[in-house]
Amino acid sequence: MSAPVVRSFHHADSGTWTHVVVDPATRHAAIVDAVLDYDAPSGTIRTASAQRVLEYIATAGLTVDWVLETHAHADHLSAGAWLCERTGAKLGAGVGIIEVQRTFKRLLELGDDFTADGSAFDRLFGDGETFAIGEIAVRVLAMPGHTADSIAYVAGDAVFVGDTLFAPKSGSARCDFPGGDAAALHASIRRLYELPDATRVFLCHDYPAADAAPVAEIALAEQKRGNVHVRDDTDAATFVALRTTRDATLAVPRLLWPAVQFNIRGGRLPPDGAFFRLPVAFAADEMPAPARIAGTDVSATT
Questions:
Q1: Per-residue pLDDT of the chain (302 residues; tens, 9 = 90+)
Q2: Cβ atoms of residues 97 and 118 within 8 Å
């Protein structure tokens, strides 16, 4: 089995790993799950993290064929389009991105200027499709559950799993986003567990304890033996119950709304180039009672 060389870069602010996947025979490469730096209070986007990747590409003398997304991330802004502009690479994602685009176009009431047809990406991969990084064949596995567009890339003895699996002590991805489904995630993980035990699993995220370093890679056998949410013998009902209970306790990701709006566009700003939409509503159990404001009976006029 062919073995790509993988160089991983950690983005501490979002806990994200970006992986540069290299065919050592041809020096051709792909970049998986690249990150921009975004300061939400100021609305400022910077490129230092993506620049680190570009510097490695240049120093190593690599030709980048692909910039790949495992899904439309909700916790960071993708550097996909930015890197493609600077490397000439093609931007790839799962075909399920169209469903995600349609969902968030509706939820955010995006206008006709946003086309939910996947055209923000150069190629949309379906389950079982193949392509190449140099001479290394890559197979795409649909991984629905966390999101409808989640996919994994199997490249030789390595698999890039996005948010489907975290390190064993952190478990698995949440399933309470639009299009998420815990039973589907269990089935997706079972597909991963059918790969050879020695497969190198490259994570998109790791959330280690304060005194531990983040982990980018782990053998599939360790996941099957020790993942706290889904081991090799964990049945679907047990996993769904655990995942559903846990998801009910999780806060909304800090960058959900700007990240999704940026990432469903392939890593680009909205056309006006200046504003993200932010849905706002009172929680169902915290709606204010009708009140008089400046002498006006609100309950009589609304």
A1: 579 999 999 999 999 999 999 999 999 999 999 999 999 999 999 999 999 999 999 999 999 999 999 999 999 999 999 999 999 999 999 999 999 999 999 999 998 889 999 999 999 999 999 999 999 999 999 999 999 999 999 999 999 999 999 999 999 999 999 999 999 999 999 999 999 999 999 999 988 778 889 999 999 999 999 999 999 999 999 999 999 999 999 999 999 999 999 999 999 998 877 788 888 877 766 655 544 334 333 333 33
A2: yes
- Residue 9 bridge partners (DSSP): 18
DSSP character string of 97-113: HHHHHHHHHHHTT--TT
Q: Domain 5-301, CATH 3.30.160.270 — does that match?
A: no
The amino acid that residue 84 corresponds to is C
Give the up-direction half-sphere exposure of residue 257: CA atoms within 13 A in the CB hemisphere. Answer: 12
Element (H, E) at 218: strand 217-219
Q: Could you tell me the pTM of the whole model?
A: 0.92
Strand 5-11 and strand 16-23: the pairing is antiparallel
Burial degree of 270 (CB within 10 A; 0-12, 13-18, 19+)? middle
Query: Residue 129: left (phi > 0), alpha (psi -120 to 50), or beta?
Result: beta
Q: How many CB atoms lie within 10 A of CB 51?
A: 15
Domain coordinates of the chain in residue numbers? 5-301
